[in-house]
Amino acid sequence: MIHQHAVSWFEIPTLDLDRAKIFYETIMEITLHPMEFPGFKMLIFPTLDPMNSISGALVSTSHGFYNPSLTDGVLIYLNANPDVQLVLDRVLGAGGDILIPKTQISEDHGFMAVIRDTEGNRIALHAVPEK
How does the average pLDDT of the chain come out, rounded? Predict the structure, then answer.
């Protein structure tokens, strides 16, 4: 069975959920929504249509299920439309670092960048300018 999207959900590990909340809300200019499960605390990224959109969460656990990493694991690309640079301009002030500055992928595929968040994760940004 082929699905419309290859990804349906992502989880970004945190060491300090409150610090990560401030970082992501600042750079993405969003409000994250709390959710708790036994042993897990999450802050959900907002979507316009939660039942038909790809989303994810910042996650903190009491049992070490997640480990932030700059080198291991998958690289998640967050939607930075309309311009990657607008998000990058807020990264340093929010406590992160820019690992790869705004870089054009191609005219059709837009721009990307890679940052280090406050938790030690590498996270990519992607934007495709409107034509």
Answer: 91
Per-residue pLDDT reduced to its tens digit, 21-58: 999 999 999 999 999 888 889 999 998 887 778 889 99
Amino acid symbol at 128:
V
User: Mapping DSSP to helix (H, G, I), strand (E, B) and coil, where does residue 21 land?
Assistant: helix
- Tell me whether residue 18 is exposed, middle or buried, using C-beta atoms within 10 angstroms of its C-beta: 0 to 12, 13 to 18, 19 or more: exposed
Q: Are 65 and 42 in contact (CB under 8 A)?
A: no
Angle of helix 17-28 relative to helix 84-91, nearest 10 degrees, comes to: 140
Tell me which residue of 36, 33, 78 sits closest to 54, measured CA to CA: 78
Specify the CATH number of the domain 9-127: 3.10.180.10
Predicted local confidence at residue 66, as pLDDT: 83
Q: How far apart are CA 56 and CA 100, in angstroms?
A: 23
Ordered by start, the domain boundaries in the chain are 9-127
